[in-house]
Design goal:
The chain has helices at about 10-30, 40-55, 60-95, 95-105, 115-150, 160-190, 200-215, 220-230. By secondary structure, it is an all-alpha fold. Helix 2 (about 40-55) runs antiparallel to helix 6 and helix 6 (about 160-190) packs antiparallel against helix 7.
Length: about 230
């Protein structure tokens, strides 16, 4: 491959700025939404607290253990997938010739090797962030399991409610990290668009941001949750 100087066009910088704005903006809106339009992530915190309240009076906690096991398996699966993706990305950074060959076939011109590596590193940045979030979520769910086991089975005991709410808060934090990890995976997929150029990155950013916000604010699952919470109020 020809070693050309690294050059980022104004369009590349604009696309990167759009990606950064979408990443931080989506996180802000999802985690701190308007009171009149809460996200699914925020709405689910109510159910997580209710889960722990029900735990106090539940005679058999096998069901609760199974739920927590499935949550931990989900975080473990995504963490493993991220590790594989990181390995593949690092291998591609070491040999960018296949990408250069595709670019030549598409008549995209000669692209500096360092620019290819930068584009792959951007994807890996999101994937690495997702991996760290999934691993931490897995550990937090483990903490939650221990705290749930320490909740007394008698609602009349004074420590029952506080311990249940403490377990709920750890569960909420685990879910928050898991959601951030998923969001990072979405944006990693969007960042792959940069391999096709700045317009590809912008298109990928718009698509993944739209999908993320739709699932949090305009999905069928959200309507079902809001309807249930509305009946309870």
């Amino acid at each position: 491959m020809t070693h050309l100087p690294l050059t980022l066009t104004r369009l590349d910088l604009l696309a990167l700025a759009l990606l950064a704005a979408a990443w931080f903006g989506a996180a802000r809106v999802i985690e701190h939404p308007p009171a009149r339009l809460p996200s699914v992530s925020v709405l689910m915190t109510t159910y997580r607290r209710d889960w722990m309240r029900q735990l106090v009076a539940r005679d058999s906690r096998i069901f609760d253990g199974n739920i927590l096991t499935s949550l931990r398996e989900g975080t473990s699966f995504f963490a493993s997938a991220c590790m594989i993706a990181i390995g593949g990305g690092l291998a591609l950074i070491g040999n960018t010739d296949p990408l250069a060959g595709i670019a030549r076939d598409l008549d995209a011109g000669e692209i500096p090797e360092m620019l290819w590596r930068l584009k792959i590193l951007l994807v890996l940045l999101f994937v690495a962030n997702a991996f760290l979030k999934f691993v931490w979520a897995h550990r937090l769910f483990g903490y939650c399991a221990i705290m749930m086991a320490a909740v007394p089975n008698d609602p009349d005991l004074p420590e029952a409610e506080p311990r249940a709410m403490a377990a709920a808060q750890v569960n909420i934090q685990a879910a928050r990290n898991f959601n951030i990890g998923l969001r990072a995976v979405y944006f990693a997929l969007g960042a792959i668009g940069w391999l096709a150029g700045a317009w590809g990155l912008m298109l990928g950013t718009v698509v993944v941001t739209s999908i993320t916000l739709r699932r949090e604010f305009a999905s069928g699952s959200r309507r079902a949750i809001v309807a249930d919470l509305g009946r309870r109020d």
